[in-house]
């Protein structure tokens, strides 16, 4: 304990050199914290953004292609298979292993109906699930309701609404074979540049009635939470619980974007690690100069009975102090730097990652102790007898 008190007094007596050593650790710690905090926030922000892109797994009935050949001439292909998914099978998706990652499971039923003598595409949806899946839809009016009402409602795409002059409250009649349904327009979907611009969107039950497909859907659009979900593996799990269905992962864009983020993060982390190595050399150089200045003190200490272990522990303690102080200051500076750089680089505002504090301080403390190895070796090489002769 007496030796540790001696170290503390000596450290604060050499304030200038202490500042230089601590500053090296601060820069390295701040760089590491800023990189981890910034890119962790970027990853979370990216996942939140991708969750707004829509489905990343599409489930459809599996269709088998049978080639038609007449002698040596190809006559095309014949497609065989079930065209619909039983609505009663949809809950089976929630039995997969990674069901906690399922955010939205939106059933859809497609068909053709007649509107004022022309054919239009009808899409039946679960309004609540579809609203979560397509938050970017701008509706001039209001969303359709999933509740059974006396008057069925519909959303119409802009390519249909504009030519026919349809708006919220307008009435239309949809017919299919011998079935006709009077529908009130709940709202018009502003142009999305996608197929929905030419669709009429109905509640699922209404579309099943119109198309005479009660209890059936054409496909399922699934959004899996991408913060940890293996989308391809989830697709295989869905195919396992829904035999005869094809679950296709739509994650290539997400993977490419994440590859860029991870590559940038790796490059920045490499620079931070190099900075940490440089700070180790800075601390080692400062402490080595300190040992050279204290050769007489160390020699006298060894002459009066200080063991090698005590001398080494004294230097390790000094290195640990430099590391702890530098780590704490570096964590605070790195956190502040991330608050400034993250909005500019990745357009997110990060939260302080307090769980990194102990890890960063531990790494910096270890760095300071490793930097003490060379000065410790130098201190053990001091000959007490030679020092006493020079006093």
Keywords:
alpha+beta; 51% helix; 6-stranded mixed beta barrel; rod-shaped; 391 residues
Summarize the structure.
With 391 residues, the protein is of the alpha+beta class. Helix content is 51%, strand content 22%.
Architecture overview:
This protein is an alpha+beta fold and 391 residues long. The chain contains 12 helices and 14 strands. The strands form 3 sheets. A 6-stranded mixed beta barrel has the order 5-6-11-8-10-9. A two-stranded antiparallel ribbon has the order 2-3. The two termini are 27 Å apart. About 4% of the residues have low confidence.
Q: Which oligomeric state applies? A: single chain
Rounded to an integer, what's the Rg over CA atoms?
A: 35 Å
**What is the N-to-C succession of helices and strands?**
HHEEEEEEHEEHEEEHEEHEHHHHHH
Morphology: rod-shaped
- Strand line-up of the largest beta sheet: 5-6-11-8-10-9
Helices, strands, pairings?
Layout: H1 2-13, H2 15-50, E1 57-61, E2 64-70, E3 73-80, E4 85-86, E5 102-115, E6 118-125, H3 127-133, E7 139-141, E8 153-157, H4 158-164, E9 171-176, E10 179-189, E11 199-203, H5 204-211, E12 216-217, E13 219-224, H6 231-241, E14 245-249, H7 252-293, H8 295-303, H9 308-345, H10 357-371, H11 373-380, H12 384-390
Parallel strand pairs: 6-11, 8-10
Antiparallel strand pairs: 1-13, 1-14, 2-3, 4-12, 5-6, 5-9, 5-13, 7-10, 8-11, 9-10
Helix pairs in contact: 1-9, 2-7, 2-9, 2-10, 7-10, 7-11, 8-12, 9-10, 9-11
């Amino acid at each position: 304990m007496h030796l540790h008190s001696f170290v503390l007094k000596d450290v604060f007596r050499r304030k200038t050199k202490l500042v230089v050593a601590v500053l090296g650790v601060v820069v390295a710690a701040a760089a590491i914290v800023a990189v981890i905090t910034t890119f962790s926030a970027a990853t979370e922000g990216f996942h939140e953004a991708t969750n707004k892109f829509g489905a990343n797994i599409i489930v459809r009935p599996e269709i088998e292609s049978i080639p038609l050949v007449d002698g040596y001439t190809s006559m095309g292909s014949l497609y065989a298979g079930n065209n619909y998914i039983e609505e009663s099978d949809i809950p089976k998706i929630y039995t997969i292993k990674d069901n906690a990652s399922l955010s939205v499971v939106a059933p859809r039923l497609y068909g053709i109906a007649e509107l004022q003598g022309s054919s239009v595409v009808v899409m039946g949806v679960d309004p609540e699930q579809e609203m979560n899946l397509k938050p970017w839809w701008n509706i001039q009016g209001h969303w359709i309701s999933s509740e059974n009402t006396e008057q069925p409602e519909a959303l119409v795409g802009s390519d249909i609404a504009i030519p026919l002059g349809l708006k919220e409250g307008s009435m239309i009649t949809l017919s299919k074979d011998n079935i006709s349904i009077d529908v009130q327009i709940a709202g018009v979907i502003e142009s999305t540049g996608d197929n929905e611009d030419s669709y009429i969107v109905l509640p699922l039950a209404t579309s099943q009635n119109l198309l005479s497909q009660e209890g059936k859907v054409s496909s399922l659009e699934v959004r899996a939470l991408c913060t940890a979900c293996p989308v391809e593996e989830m697709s295989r799990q869905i195919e396992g619980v829904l035999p005869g269905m094809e679950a296709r992962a739509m994650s290539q864009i997400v993977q490419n974007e994440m590859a860029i983020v991870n590559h940038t993060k790796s490059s920045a982390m490499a620079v931070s690690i190099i900075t940490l190595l440089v700070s180790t050399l800075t601390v080692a150089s400062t402490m080595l100069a300190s040992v050279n200045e204290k050769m007489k003190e160390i020699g006298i200490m060894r002459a009066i009975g200080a063991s090698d272990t005590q001398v080494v522990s004294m230097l390790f303690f000094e290195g640990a102090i430099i590391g702890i102080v530098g780590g704490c200051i570096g964590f605070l500076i790195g956190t502040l730097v991330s608050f400034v750089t993250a909005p500019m680089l990745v357009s997110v505002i990060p939260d302080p990652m307090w769980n990194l504090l102990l890890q960063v301080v531990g790494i910096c403390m270890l760095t300071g102790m490793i930097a003490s190895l060379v000065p410790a070796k130098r201190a053990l090489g001091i000959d007490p007898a030679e020092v006493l002769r020079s006093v």
